[in-house]
Amino acid sequence: xxxxxxxxxxxxxxxxxxxxxxxxxxxxxxxxxxxxxxxxxxxxxxxxxxxxxxxxxxxxxxxxxxxxxxxxxxxxxxxxxxxxxxxxxxxxxxxxxxxxxxxxxxxxxxxxxxxxxxxxxxxxxxxxxxxxxxxxxxxxxxxxxxxxxxxxxxxxxxxxxxxxxxxxxxxxxxxxxxxxxxxxxxxxxxxxxxxxxxxxxxxxxxxxxxxxxxxxxxxxxxxxxxxxxxxxxxxxxxxxxxxxxxxxxxxxxxxxxxxxxxxxxxxxxxxxxxxxxxxxxxxxxxxxxxxxxxxxxxxxxxxxxxxxxxxxxxxxxxxxxxxxxxxxxxxxxxxxxxxxxxxxxxxxxxxxxxxxxxxxxxxxxxxxxxxxxxxxxxxxxxxxxxxxxxxxxxxxxxxxxxxxxxxxxxxxxxxxxxxxxxxxxxxxxxxxxxxxxxxxxxxxxxxxxxxxxxxxxxxxxxxxxxx
RNA sequence: GGAGAGGUGGCGGAGCGGUUGAACGCGCCGGUUUCGAAAACCGGUAUACCUCGCAAGGGGUAUCGGGGGUUCGAAUCCCCCCCUCUCCGCCA
Length: 467
Known about the structure:
single chain; BirA Bifunctional Protein, domain 2; elongated; three-stranded antiparallel β-sheet; RNA-binding; 13 helices
């Protein structure tokens, strides 16, 4: 959520931000509703103050008169009754007015709060303008010594690459048929070394973050309340991407949602808390199963392990002080972790600066990491793929947008002891089985065997190859 | 699934219709004392929104799980919802 006060001060900033993100939102409508709401609340508060005054003045009198009533009779009694009635009339009139204003508020507030959730965070000024992913800008690329991304796989390695589908099949690493039989399209079953490799990659990434980078390991719920989804910014806009656990229809008190990323659980941890500044930054990592409906992606990446409904992911989040420089520094650092990891896995990659149109609601800045997948992309004259980069990571810088929704604040010396909204960032560490695509394709040998990256071998009982 | 108990400030725990944002204790912060510390003593210690002020700060309203109701007045009474806990059953 954006800062409403800031919106009032500089609405153009948000109009422009929404435009750059191709989000259709009527900022003036929001401002108008906010204006009306504040006027009504102000009026109400004044009336309430008046009411309180009256209470203090007449309350005692009423008490006394009631006492005298008990003993009184006849003319005295009716005189007292009249006096009581007049004392009660004024507060009653005020109450009616206040309640009337309440009605006015109920006409405004639902729309206002709904709209507020839909105002996107404006992109940072140094984010390139663009309409969508085609306008993203490459920042840098890396490939292991001896592998030149300017040349084809065959030129580099001396034989044409098999696709990950072919390699999976060849080594019996996955059973798509039975996956689909049980759970429908985009489902799969990792088998044998496929499952081992998957677990090894996750475990390596998890250990890397906790042991080497000092992040705090956490488990998180992957079935959460709607509150968490709204708080982390995935709802309302991404509602159709999440699986719904419809408990209400069977009498349960709350519907629940399956999370599409560990970010939801990690960020939800400190919802509605005021943290001590000395506790920051919080650096958390988790490995969790992620569920995505992939609504609207019908027909896209239907084959293989690229776009699936369920996968596992090691995720990193950082919650830090409300300081742009600090946020920016963490963003770079979190990207650095990923680069180190990919380099150790020997996977060529590039960093993409996402343009304004590709940022999503929440981000001020987002940098994607794409790994080189030789079996992906357009085909050559022989019907063989030319290779392409495929997204494997996404590093977001959200400033206070997410924490404001989550009501996650901190205080300390730098805030003068007053609560301030935390900043948050998140980035993939490793998502599998998608990461198996470049691992298999990049480390395949001419005979189709796979050389296991050294880093993963300790998690595979020391095995050096598959096949 | 069956049966109970309960949700009050950072925590513990009072209050059960009237200057109660809320006793008391703990914690925390500041001060006195001390060579220093502990102890003791004194003072302070919520959040949100609105408003006045350059600021320090002042004023107002709301908040005792959430919503609604009764009442001149509700943390206190009534209704609905949510949540947590305990016991039994089932179970990874």
